[in-house]
Amino acid sequence: AAAAGATPAGTPAAPPKPSAPKPQTYTKDKDDPFANVGRNDPCPCGSGLKYKKCHGRDQ
């Protein structure tokens, strides 16, 4: 008789499942004015500065 948890002879054991979780995907909000702003585009906040000099500095 086979021991509990053992596979019968000739049957390959199942490969271990990966333990790392899948990375979360980030979806941008379509209504977000900052979603698709290029670095050299005017900042959507209305300051008149380029995005990279205004709100783009934080990144």
UniProtKB/TrEMBL annotation:
Biased composition (Low complexity): 1-12
Pfam families: SEC-C
Region (Disordered): 1-47
Origin: domain of life: Bacteria
InterPro entries named in the record: SEC_C_motif (IPR004027)
Protein's name according to its UniProt entry: Preprotein translocase subunit SecA
Species per Swiss-Prot/TrEMBL record: Eggerthella sinensis
